[in-house]
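Technical note accompanying the year-one report. For the benefit of new consortium partners, we illustrate the data format agreed upon in the data management plan: each record pairs a sequence with a structure-token string. No post-processing was applied to the example shown here.
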Amino acid sequence: MRTAVQETSIDAYHSSDRRNVGKLQCDRIAEYVASVGNATIAEIAKAMGMEKSSVSGRRNELIAAGRLVLAGERKCTVTRRTVQAVKVPAKQGSLFQ
């Protein structure tokens, strides 16, 4: 038997508002990375005022969707650790010009 609290929690989990927040975060992260060239999770989190765990999840979604690609390892300006950065993939040129 489910209580009203459980039903509300389940409804909130499946709500479109939650999906919209994730999409908005993805869009903002992709725009930020495009503007700076490449960035690490900690750099994105600091610049956007987000938790690193949130940035990590959105980064993984963006990579899976092909909106970001791995840019190789480099030293993070925030953590001073060598980590994997991401960048926007290069645009494919026209085959017929």
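Partners are asked to follow this layout when depositing records. The helical segments are 4-13, 16-36, 41-48, 52-64.
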